[in-house]
Amino acid sequence: MRTRTRPDPSGPATQGTVPWRKLPPGDKLAFAVAVLLPPRFTPARVRADRRYRTLDKYRFIVGFLILPLAFYAVFVISPFFQAIYYSFTDWAGGATANFVGFDNYVKMWNDEKFWSSVQTSLLLLVFVPVVTLALGIFFAYMITAGGRHRRGEAVSGVVGSSFYKVVYFFPQVLSIALIAVVWQQVYSSRSGLLNGLLGEVGLGSLEQRWLGGDYKLGLFATMAVIAWSFVGFYVVLFSAAMGAIPKDIYEAALLDGAGRGATFFRVTLPLIWDTVRTGWIYMGIQALDAFAVVLIMVPGHVLKVTPVYLYERFREGQFGYATAIGVVLLVLSMAFTLIVMRIGRRETIEY
Amino acid sequence: MSTDAAAVAEKAAADPASGSTTRPRAAGGGRGGKGGKDARGLKGGESRTLNAFSHGFLVLWVIMAAGPLVWVALTAFRPTADYLGDPMGLPTSLHWENFVNAWTEAKVGRYALNSVIILAGSLTGTMLLGSMAAYVIARFTFPGNRFIFLLFAGGMMFPVILALIPLFTIMDNLSLLDTRPGLIIAYIAYSLPFTTFFLTSFFRTLPSGVQEAAMIDGASHTRTFFQVMLPMAKPGLVSIGIFNFLGQWNQYLLPLLLNNDDENNYVLPQGLAALTVSQGYAGDWGALFAGLTLAMVPVLVVYAVFQRQVQAGLTAGAIK
């Protein structure tokens, strides 16, 4: 046993404490400065007091929370509320910001370029999650249920499943800026991988100036890049969810004579539905952003997504207008989340 | 055991590659009698077709996912003139000159160093402040506890782009714009919501007995945290640490806004984006490909080594 110079702190405190008035003046002082002093300068009598322990606890709580909370409040929370306020002003970056009511929003309503950017963002929002999640679910199902039957297993994973997952996940660990540059080269009309491949397999007639300025081609190119970079993420996510489904359920389905299709649509999909819905919302928010891909891959293109349009207004110094666009983006992503929650609501199946 | 399926099972056992699958075959054998038998008997042939079918598609996506990256890495070894003549060619010899050009003239080395310096500060700060806040929220009852937790949790839903413009002026007013400390602080602040949220649920799962025992033995709250609780939370810290490492290393939006003054201070993603413009003018595509390869390979190697933790850490981010 180690020897201690001071009594067990839980001892005297539980026996009841001396009322505050009857404390020696020295202890009163010790209490007062205990907030600032390290514990070793505080007398043992005071330290054993229940009130000191409460004080000590709150000192610790405040000490640990103050810095994280301050950073978070100053650099995250406050800009968020400021943005909402500035969206109602004609702020141009200077010291003055005059309140102009809904002027920015009216201007936006009549701004054709803004609407064109919203159209692009909405197309991405609708199509990218559907394509990405469908591919993710497809490959995840192939990985978890596409293998040869082994003894006693109703479904079997494919051989080399972890290899597939590792490679599929590659784009997720790379910076979106790097991905945008890589794909800019892939799409390059003079010496890109895509046109090179098409020429190689005798489809030279399909060669395109992919990022040459045509809106539709640019849109498809952008969608493909975003979907490409996220499919692996969803394969890993969904194959983990599918792996958590008990094998007995599959066995029961097989015994009941269910085919592959029925097993997938009646067993697998309903059981991972919660994960799919969460993934759908997450992917939608990513698609609505698409900032780096569009800004880096197709600069100066007619194709603009709303965040890029916002950024350009910001660089022009139209701070008030740009924040108003940001508020509309926030509303859009909240509306999307609510719609998916509503559409995607099904009974949760416990297993 | 003379069924068709038994033959398939034996074949699978003989196949050396299938021995490397994660699922132990012994477990399957233990459950063999339960109900799989009938299914196996019926589905043997179909299973083989399906297996070929699924491998076909899976390999196709391997080519799709890795193809562009492999092409970039191979082209990095070819002289620019060769590449412009035939973008599909293979390197004839290992042409390291592109890498030298990328590292020095295209400043990829400098950008990488900037990224390392920023990350050393921001990752340490994020982990320290995040775990401090999470510990207090998870293990202490005090007025406002729930409110602070929800405040952090709410920040995860937050579209960063909306806050950008006011953030820009706040940084400017604090003289932190276009400085390293400013960028580090911004990284920390925007990583805190998820880090705190994740670690709070992690600290809640730790047994409370250890914390009480440390306190009774006379350890202060601070000491209990650093020497007892933090080591116990290591698995959670590793997951969220990897998540933040990749997120901050790959960050593009915040440096674009807060670190856009001097090209010499660019972090790696910014530098790569700038490279397409500058190398395009210079006509030195080889250096661009080499720069991309230099940026890409270390991350992919680290990922391949820690793949299990990385996959767990990053997908944890989506499930929240």
TrEMBL record, chain A:
Q: Which PROSITE patterns match?
A: ABC_TM1
Which terms in the GO cellular component ontology are assigned?
A: plasma membrane
- Alphabetically list the UniProt keywords: Cell membrane, Membrane, Transmembrane, Transmembrane helix, Transport
Q: Which InterPro entries match?
A: ABC_transporter_permease (IPR051393), MetI-like (IPR000515), MetI-like_sf (IPR035906)
Q: What's the protein's topology in the membrane?
A: Multi-pass membrane protein
Entry's localization field:
Cell membrane
Extract one GO BP annotation from the record.
transmembrane transport
Q: What residues form the membrane-spanning segments?
A: 60-81, 122-145, 166-186, 217-237, 280-299, 319-341
Where mainly found? membrane
An example Pfam family from this entry, by short name, is BPD_transp_1
The record places domain ABC transmembrane type-1 at 118-340
**Which PANTHER family does the UniProt entry name for this protein?**
ABC TRANSPORTER PERMEASE PROTEIN (PTHR30193), DIACETYLCHITOBIOSE UPTAKE SYSTEM PERMEASE PROTEIN NGCF (PTHR30193:SF41)
The family note in this entry says: Belongs to the binding-protein-dependent transport system permease family.
The name this protein carries in UniProt is: Sugar ABC transporter permease
- Which species is listed as the source? Streptomyces diacarni
